[in-house]
Amino acid sequence: MGSMSIVHWMIVVGVVVLLFGKGKISGVMGDVAQGMKSFRKGLQEDMPVETPPHNIQAASETSTVAKS
């Protein structure tokens, strides 16, 4: 009685389809998919570009000279 069986889930899905309609649910799912796609694209664009190792070494030499 405390757990949801497959029959309960089928009733819930049926009520949701009746309330929102088949077209509206597919439209919302399309919008969610498009949002996820643009989010992933934004994350890839914001990734910093790694600097070459010779620039890091030059920066550390400069900082040791400044300390002396």
Q: Can you walk through the features of this model?
A:
This protein is an all-alpha fold. The chain has a domain at 7-45. It is 81% helix and 0% strand. It contains 3 helices and no strands. The longest helix is centred in the middle third of the chain and has 25 residues, at 22-46. The chain is elongated and about 65 Å long.
Features of this protein?
68 residues, 3 helices
A few lines on this structure:
Helices cover 81% and strands 0% of the residues. With 68 residues, it is an all-alpha fold.
Question: What's the topology here?
Answer:
Layout: H1 6-20, H2 22-46, H3 53-67
Average per-residue pLDDT, rounded, comes to: 77
Report the radius of gyration as a whole number of Å.
27 Å
The total count of strands amounts to 0
Count every helix, treating DSSP H or I runs of 4 or more residues as helices: 3
Largest sheet: none
Shape: elongated
